[in-house]
Design brief:
Distance between the termini: 181 Å
Number of helices: 7
Helix content: under 10%
Largest sheet: 7 strands, mixed
CATH superfamily of one domain: Ribonuclease Inhibitor
Number of strands: 61
CATH topology of one domain: Leucine-rich repeat, LRR (right-handed beta-alpha superhelix)
Strand content: 25-35%
Length: 740
């Protein structure tokens, strides 16, 4: 007999085994509220509405053995007990992966279709979306690889995102009127799709809507289309032709990227075309086709219409047929890259003042343009307007132009000529810098100001005529103009700025006006062919550091007023008087007369630093009022043999006036009682001989016949003067003669 404890033990063991078996059997909670005529429903009992679902929890994805099969018709209503439910929705995943679903018919009350509701239904070949359906989830029919035809009835306003994504056999789409939006990726990767006609009601094609439809050859846009999204037709590589409707406003980036087979683009009018905004060059199908047709005519000339005030970026990108463009007065702006890649565009006419204020018009119309005509009411060319237009050879400026601003034509390397209108008043900083083919320039008389570097680096420039209103030739204005041979500096110019003509290697002669006051540092430095300079000034001039440095061909300095020359100042660095052109020329002329016997004018009490540096004078005469000879006053004057000092009361002060002079071979003539002091003064003691001055008459008291007479300050006179006369005899010899 078994014990009670052993019996209980065996009973509990059997119960445990049964429980384990039961727990190992799959258990499915009820996933639907009703199952009627082969269709599962979830119910909204409060509002008496039904949603089609499947038999899995939370609308899960079907497996083959539990799928809907064959042809399914969604009823308008269902009745459960005494209640009638309206079937208004197809739920999420309701028919997902129903591989044997052959057809679906929607009841008249269906208003929405949920996410992936018919995804991967591989046997589904056609779909008709009735007009009452208003809402679509994501990927509704994605992956229906045998779907061939889609019909959307009139009244459906929007298709959902990725709704027919990767339906690789879809060939026919019929979209009804009333549709306004094709959502993102709606027909993406429908690789068999060849032709699409969009309804006139469609306003928006969203991003990637037809991307990678590699067989798509033709798209007919409806008249109501307003925008095309990013990459909407991305890599539709079979697309042959595009016809944009009137009213299209925007095409986003990459909309037609990779559409390499497009042969033509059409628009009803140029105005319609110019009202489209293209976000980048791949948004414009012209990027691939290069041929634009307006109302059936190939566009070769662009005349901006009267209702267009701005030309947007990429409007004509890579349009190879365009040869000329005309921008009328009413146009306010033309954006960068509007005509990018228009390689046949050669002539541009701009009558718009506003457009001429743009910078870098070469980025608007392209660098290949060789001719610009500016007209209309344009009064100013803006900063950097034509900067770097490297193929520009000619520009026509309007008669009313007042100003050319900073760098306006900078680096236009092929610009050969430009006629500046008489109305012009201002030329800005670097306006023509680097125009290396420019050959001549006449600056109109109304121009009163030019900016720095205005013609720097114009290496082919041969002749320059400056404005009569100009007060200053600015800093580096003509520097590195290696071909410059002639420049006319008009009366009225007071300042020639630093580096103004530096490196003008072919410049041979320069005449400076009487108004000149300052020649800036290095103004004519390295003008290696400069042979003569003429100063018509009767006022003192400031010669700044290195003004004539490197002018090694100089042989003649002509002055009109010796007194003014003696009052001039010459800045010097490290005892190198390259501010004075005499350091190279040596020969100083008063008018046409070569000064060999220098008589310092009676008005001069002080000879400034380096006034006669390098002069080839033979004798020097200092009148009785000369008080100081400053440093280097006769620097490098190695040919003089005699110096006459007529000061009676004391010897003139000297501060190394005879640096690099051959005084050891020269004779100093002075009053006898002062000779010991000259011999004791460091700056005077170096002379070879000290000779008493003949006070009674110097040479004789009667002027020889047939001689030219000059005053002590170098002015030619007729007849003789009482007192000291400078006489040039007919044999060329100069004499100093006192007439009582």
């Amino acid at each position: 007999m078994k014990k009670t404890g052993d019996l209980n033990y065996h009973v509990m063991k059997k119960l445990s085994i049964i429980l384990c078996v039961l727990l190992s059997i799959p258990f499915y909670a009820r996933a639907f509220d009703a199952y009627i005529d082969g269709i599962y429903y979830n119910l909204d009992k409060e509002n008496h509405r039904a949603t089609v679902t499947n038999n899995l929890p939370d609308g899960g994805v079907q497996y083959q053995e539990g799928c809907y099969q064959g042809e399914i018709t969604i009823p308008e209503t269902i009745k459960i007990g005494k209640f009638v439910y309206t079937v208004e929705a197809i739920g999420k995943n309701a028919f997902n992966k129903c591989y044997h679903l052959d057809a679906i018919h929607f009841g008249k009350n269906v208003r929405s279709i949920g996410d992936m509701a018919f995804a991967y239904c591989q046997n589904l070949r056609s779909v008709c979306i009735p007009s009452q359906v208003k809402e679509f989830g994501l990927y509704v029919f994605t992956g229906c690889s045998n779907l061939e035809s889609v019909v959307v009835d009139d009244g459906v306003e929007c298709l959902g995102k990725s709704m027919f994504f990767s339906c690789t056999r879809l060939k026919s789409i019929q979209l009804g009127e009333g549709m306004k939006v094709l959502a993102a990726s709606c027909f993406s990767q429908c690789t068999a799709l060849e032709e699409v006609k969009l309804p006139n009601s469609l306003e928006r094609i969203d991003d990637y809507a037809f991307s990678s439809c590699e067989s798509l050859r033709t798209v007919v846009f409806g008249t109501g289309l307003k925008s095309i999204g990013q990459h909407a037709f991305w890599w539709c590589e079979s697309l042959m032709s595009i016809s944009f409707p009137s009213g299209l406003q925007s095409v986003k980036a990459g909309a037609f990227m990779g559409c390499t087979s497009i042969q033509s683009v059409h628009a009803p009018s140029l105005s319609d075309w110019l009202h489209i905004s293209f976000e980048d060059e791949t948004s414009n199908p012209l990027n691939y086709t290069h041929h634009l047709y307006i109302d059936g005519q190939l566009v070769q000339r662009v005349d901006v219409p009267s209702d267009v005030t701005s030309v947007k970026q990429y409007a004509f990108v890579n349009c190879e047929d365009i040869k000329s463009v005309s921008v009328p007065e009413h146009v306010k702006s033309v954006s960068w890259y509007s005509f990018k890649g228009c390689n046949q565009l050669k002539t541009v006419v701009i009558n718009s003042h506003d457009v001429c204020q743009h910078s870098y018009l070469c980025n608007v119309f392209g660098r290949q343009v060789d001719s610009y005509m500016i007209g209309g009411n344009v009064t100013r060319i803006g900063n950097q307007a034509f900067w770097d237009c490297e193929y520009l050879t000619a520009v026509t400026l309007p008669p009313g132009l007042v100003a050319i601003d900073k760098s306006a034509f900078c680096n236009c390397q092929k610009l050969r000529s430009v006629h500046l209108p008489e109305s012009l008043e201002y030329i800005g900083y670097s306006a023509f810098l680097g125009c290396s083919s420019l050959e001549s320039i006449v600056v109109p008389d109304k121009v009163s100001e030019m900016g720095h570097f205005v013609f720097e680096g114009c290496t082919s420039l041969r002749s320059v005529v400056l404005s009569n209103s100009l007060k200053e030739v600015p800093y580096s204005a003509f520097s590195k103009c290696k071909g410059l041979e002639e420049v006319v500096i008009p009366e009225g110019v007071e300042v020639i700025g630093s580096d103004a003509f530096v490196g003008c290697e072919k410049l041979k002669e320069v005449t400076f006006p009487g108004s000149l006051f300052v020649i800036g540092g290095s103004a004519f430095s390295e003008c290696k062919s400069l042979e003569s300079v003429t100063f018509d000034s009767n006022r003192k001039i400031i010669f700044q550091d290195y003004a004539f440095s490197g002018c090694t061909s100089l042989s003649k300095v002509v002055i009109s007023d010796l007194e003014a020359w003696c009052n001039s100042s010459f800045e010097v660095q490290n005892y190198q008087p390259y501010s004075n052109p005499l350091i190279y020329a040596h020969r100083l002329y008063l008018g046409s007369e070569h000064i060999e016997d220098l008589v310092v004018p009676t008005s001069i009490e002080r000879l400034n630093e380096y006034t006669f540096a390098g002069a080839d004078v033979k004798t020097i005469t200092l009148h009785q009022d000369v008080k100081l000879l400053d440093e280097g006053a006769f620097f490098g004057c190695k040919e003089f043999t005699d110096v006459y000092c007529y000061r009676k009361d004391r010897i003139p002060s000297a501060n190394m006036p005879f640096i690099n002079c051959n005084v050891k071979n020269a004779t100093l003539h002075a009053y006898e009682d002062l000779l010991p002091k000259y011999k004791d003064y460091d700056d005077w003691r170096g002379f070879k001989e000290f000779v008493p001055l003949d006070e009674t008459g110097i040479l004789q008291h009667q002027l020889p016949s047939e001689s030219e007479v000059y005053t002590i300050d170098g002015r030619k006179v007729h007849g003789q003067l009482h007192g000291l006369n400078i006489v040039r005899q007919n044999n060329g010899i100069l004499r100093k003669i006192i007439v009582k």
